């Protein structure tokens, strides 16, 4: 790699010619720097988890082949982040003709401005150095994007100010793509770009030149293109015209995390928590796991549009809300430290409702009820990882570990767990349930303190999801009781009369 500390001291074209600097294309920059980083074992796409054996090798192969790239995948799969991180593979500095709006290479100027300046000043032509951070441009494709936005147009104000005829190419106002010369240009959501605008990209991708308002000019652009698209867009909102797809050399498929642990690692990495929350809130691994399981359930739910996908932003926002729910409860109770509870998942419902696209049946249920049902399914799926599967046990058999608990509720006992109860009240309520403490000790003997009581609460929720207990919503909490007595309060439609909008989460049976 060149010694930019000495090169950036060069101020004229003559000095640049006499130096060791050798111009190269953007794609060659990316290729050479990628090879160097691969040989040194350096991490190339930092913070991109789960793509080490799939997406990243495909991107590396595309860069080595000097291809333009389209990243194809559902929402929240780090497509734009990958495009932005490709910037790190460019040289730290490049020289340009001073004042050039299209970053003209002093050795290969393409604009009228640069050619005239070099013709006038020769080796005394001033040169400036631009950092790679300025060599990235990004455009979100929307229906109102025009050819002028991307490529350029005649600027009548410039013509009048400079007193130039419209036949003079100096009246051209360059769009985003020419201004991205010798850099990276990303178009997000490519199918949303109108077909006639997509057609305007043909020559740029194939011939590396542009045409503006009929000007007969050769403008050999040097741009690395990265496009992103959602498969849903091919059928619902728009499409990528076939000749354009044919000109994008590498199509790379992205995907969601392939394991819950990987999804959890992404959430932990991306969640933006206040420093005070990090100090005063502790999220149990079980609760963090439940948040991730909600997204997994959503991707498999009959209520959620699978073509739209469920973004990783759902779990990130839900995890942030979970922290805030614990923090809020601690503040209300004057406690210096808060530990997560299953009931705190109530606080993540607003983070779910805005990030899932429902099919017709889901719209009929309503987003809040669908969200609560997803939480219920997450609890049910996770419960068997911690305790025996109730479906595989005989309900009243002596060896059934839940027997003492369900029989106690069967004798008419009721437990109300309030959302904002203090830690002392929370533990007192759980301590009053015979067999609960023993069950947790039998299957999690090392659990103590906050973790032990969380697992006890989890048992109640799990038994409710497996229809061994009734779980009903109160104004600000949950009530657990015998399943039969709970059913007596349900109307003909199977909905608790006293339930609120989050009935799916509260009511089982």
What is the strand and helix layout of this fold?
Elements: H1 4-7, H2 13-18, H3 26-40, H4 55-64, E1 69-72, H5 79-85, E2 93-97, H6 112-121, E3 127-131, E4 136-140, H7 147-150, E5 152-154, H8 156-162, E6 172-174, H9 176-179, E7 183-188, H10 195-199, H11 202-206, E8 223-229, H12 242-247, E9 250-253, H13 260-270, H14 275-280, E10 281-282, H15 285-300, H16 312-332, E11 338-339, H17 349-353, H18 360-365, H19 367-383, H20 403-410, E12 415-418, H21 423-431, H22 436-443, H23 449-465, E13 470-474, E14 477-481, H24 483-487, H25 503-506
Could you walk me through the main structural features you see in this protein, from its secondary elements to its overall organization?
The protein has 509 residues and is an alpha/beta fold. The chain folds into three domains: 4-253, P-loop containing nucleotide triphosphate hydrolases (Rossmann fold); 256-383, Helicase, Ruva Protein, domain 3; 385-509, no CATH class. Helices cover 42% and strands 12% of the residues. The protein is built from 25 helices and 14 strands. Strands 4-7-8-1-9 form a five-stranded parallel β-sheet. Strand 13 and strand 14 form a beta hairpin. Helix 15 packs across helix 16, helix 15 (285-300) packs across helix 19 (367-383) and helix 19 crosses helix 23 (449-465). The longest helix is centred in the middle third of the chain and has 21 residues, at 312-332.
